[in-house]
Amino acid sequence: MLVLSNVSRTFVSKDHTIRALAGVNMEVREEEFICILGPSGCGKTTLLRIIAGLDTPTSGELLLDGTRIERPGQDRGMVFQDYSLCPWRTVIDNIAFGPEVQGVAKKERYESAREYLRLLDLEKFENSYPYELSGGMRQRIAIVRALINNPKLLLMDEPFGALDAQTRNNMQAELLRIWEKKHKTILFVTHSVDEAVYLADRIVVMSARPGTVKEIFTINLPRPRIRTSLESNTIRDRVLKSLGTEIELAASTINKL
Amino acid sequence: MNARWTYYFVLPSAFIVLWYAVSAAHIYPVYIIPPLGMVLGSFAEQINSGTLFQNIYWSIVRVIAGFAIAALIGIPLGIGMGWSNSLMRLVEPLTNIIRQIPPIAWVPFAMIWFRAGVVESSAFIVFIGAFFPILLNTISGVKGVPVLFIESAYTLGASSRQILTKVVLPASMPSILSGLRIGLGIGWMSLVAAEMMGQDYGLGSFIINSSTVLRMDRVVVGMITIGLLGFLMDRIFKGFESSLLSWRGR
What we know:
heterodimer, A: alpha/beta, 6-stranded mixed beta sheet, B: MetI-like fold, 11 helices, globular
């Protein structure tokens, strides 16, 4: 459904030029859960932003169901690493933002927002403001806020990066539950190999800057996965090795600078 | 009365006691420090004759008129300048030069331009005083809206126009409101100064008229009224502000 061909992005500033992405090729299938791993600065976030339409590639092409991606659209939802809920809106008005800007009547958009609140089991926070919620709750709201538009593709940029380990594990399980229920295609950027092995159908390991697709791992383990199982450990090992060389490479480039 | 409330009254009460003590001691002539009793007497006199309310009425009408126009122009212009770099480059140099001119310096022209009006000339001075804090705070509010809010609204399908009304405006509201509050205060101060130069009514002219006949007790009545009214307006505004910004959770 999503096809990236030769996507490159170069940032040009006054004193230097940074090649963030150099020819990324990737194909994402319907209802697939993909995790993108890579050393810091490899352009994972840039790639996701390009797919979201928030950034444009210097060269290359992105096709979503055959249509070129050029700007943000409701067919792609995005969940950011930092808390992005509007602090002046109540929980329900945050979730209903997408339908609201599409001109859906208040009664109808509240009905569908409530449906998502029920899915999260957060009905009683309908009229709360974001400051009254924990970090985990805010990210769950941010996820359903993106889902209410019924996007083909859900893009997630280290959405659980700011959460503590316990909350993070719970959120991963909940995300899988939502993903299975709503039949979504998810592209999930993360730093954590553990998280990727727990979540993904396929793990895309990116190379150090300039980012390209280095290796793709297919994970055929049934869900719910046991984080400490032998199979999980074996895959984690292979992914870590692949990632490790890239991290060393990234570190040596930094040392050279 | 709880402890918190007592705090509020400590210094004002001490001030009144000191004032009373100084006036009872008869150290200074009444035109240097008018005695408390005398000032209270002329307060009563001004209230009974209705002149005080007449003066208050004109001052308030002028400040509301000038302040409202300043907000009506300052907020949209500030949003535009914060949002669009070209509008900023176009308008900023001129407004920044005009901003340096004290509101009172506009009095001669205000008097010529709005000769006929009882309200207009002073309201114009209020406008000048209130406009720039409103404009500058609105600009900095808009410039300070986190990019994250804007980008997430784009990914949810909002148009640029919707981003402006549904994200930028509410996100910069705290800054806009503090601009309004500062603008109201400066407008009130400029008003009184403007009224001191050629108005028949208003608290400023009341002070000037009283001082020319050396009724310093009345001058104090005018000063206290200005202080109390300004305080009251600020408190009302503060209440309005915190109810509007309850989402901040403090």
